[in-house]
Amino acid sequence: MKKIAKYIGIVALAFGACATFTSCDDELAHAPYEMPAEEIGDGTWERPLQTWQANLGTTVDGRTSNWVTGYIVGWIDTSVSNTMNAAVIGTPCSVATNMIIAQYPYDEEKWAEMGYSLDDCATVQLPSGAVRTACNLMDNPGNFNRQVSLRGTTGSKYCGAYGVRAANDYNWGPTGRYEEPVSPMGDSYFCNFTASRDINYYIERGWSRYMISGGLSGWYWKENSGVDFVTTSAYLGTATGGPYENWIVSPAFDIDNAREKTLSFSTQASTSADSYLEVYVMTHKNPKSCEPVKLQCVLAEAPASGYSAWVDSGTIDLSEFSGTIYIGFRYWSAHGGTGNSSDFGMTNFNIGGADPEEWEVIDPSTIGTFRKATTITPGKKYAFVFGDNVMCPLSEAYTYGNFGVKELKETGDEISFSKDYAFTLEAAPEAGQYTIRDCYGRYLYMYGTFTNFNVSSTPTPNNAPIQNTYWAFTEGSGVFEIRNVVRDLVLVYDANRNYIGSLSAASYDGRGAVLYELVEE
């Protein structure tokens, strides 16, 4: 064990030349405590900065965007003060915009023995989005003392203490989300925005954003029904404001060395209004520094309400272009606010005829082996496969919706894919009935008159009877009908929308799910 003192010089010697430290105020300095010598991070997803490093205002080689790991132990009551003087340990919590992380889970006696206190903790700013939804203690009291790794800005203070500002990505446990090393563009390039929830991840890899007019935040990352994409709108604008113009621009690409001179992508739109999306070829990443050439391509059209299906652009011929080019997506809206602007999303960006599998980002530790099953063993994990598609869980940031799907690359009695697609089945009181829990530990249920699905960490959410979480599994010729006991609705694959929805049990035609059991090593 090595003594970690309050003097930065001592810590800097231990951390080496890879990091730059910014001193915190004397009143936030550490009392000495014991820590294993190996617990020093470098800000990467594999070795996040430790909480004590974030508390010191650590940056790494001048880089302020870093992964940090710690245990969620509290929050700052901003109705009292925007400083650590208003820090609260534990729950209940009344603030969703921040939290406090510690080097160790909270244990009053152990903290006292080590001389550890709130002064040793780091503050975390939780902007609106997926990280706040999943991590904040107000909505997720079960997160207390749970270890999380967060990606955000270090080296500056928030609520009077050094910590993590603008947290934009997270992963439960001691490491961040797997990040594929940056690769050269080569003769083709594909991006479906599954590598990270953080738009800055893509900007660091060559994408650019430009806010031309209107002053809104521009394009950002989003996930819905199993699809990861970038999106923008003028929803946060005003009906009297505008026009709003925002661009997202691809990395540079040498079209002369392309496997083939083509482009394709997918788009989605919502809420018909005086808004549109256009696509351009450019010779500079900044649309104001060149003369963009507009492309003719198929784009999603916004319906009167709700969202369109995802629309394939078709294969766009780029043979008339040469040299280094960029692809720019220009969003324009005359006005902002609800009902006055459309949302547009884009994904599956492919230039040069890329093979998506060559660009797929996979954390090897998440891959499991699954075997086809004809019977169910309570407590085991199963994937639900419909044809060539495996059902995905709802994103951790969502509590209701239809399930997205991922297309399988292989078929057979034994196949390999992500363990995140495995659902745990526990026996319900009646024979043939089970509860279904996703990879985040949430129960699947159906509520009210809705035909989509809900998930909850408790088995009796929304004051619904526990029977709403019971599902009947009926096997026939290797295919299972999966029916909600209360609603009498069955899980089915909707090919038109490419997701898993529900259908009346009376209309069920046998196109259920094939179950694959996860083989635990």
Question: Which secondary structure elements does this structure contain, and how are they paired or packed?
Answer:
Elements: E1 2-4, H1 8-15, E2 20-21, E3 33-35, E4 49-50, H2 51-55, E5 58-59, E6 65-76, E7 87-89, E8 98-102, H3 108-114, E9 122-125, H4 130-135, E10 147-153, E11 157-158, E12 161-172, E13 189-191, H5 199-203, E14 208-213, E15 220-224, E16 227-232, E17 244-249, E18 253-254, E19 262-270, E20 275-282, E21 293-294, E22 311-312, E23 316-317, E24 324-333, E25 343-351, H6 356-359, E26 367-373, E27 381-386, E28 389-391, E29 400-401, E30 403-407, E31 414-418, E32 423-427, E33 433-437, E34 443-445, E35 453-456, E36 471-476, E37 479-484, E38 489-494, E39 499-504, E40 514-519
Parallel strand pairs: 4-6, 9-12
Antiparallel strand pairs: 1-3, 2-5, 6-7, 6-8, 6-10, 8-9, 10-12, 11-12, 13-25, 14-17, 15-16, 16-25, 17-24, 18-24, 19-22, 19-23, 19-25, 20-21, 20-24, 26-31, 26-40, 27-28, 27-32, 27-40, 28-30, 29-35, 30-39, 32-33, 33-36, 34-35, 36-37, 38-39
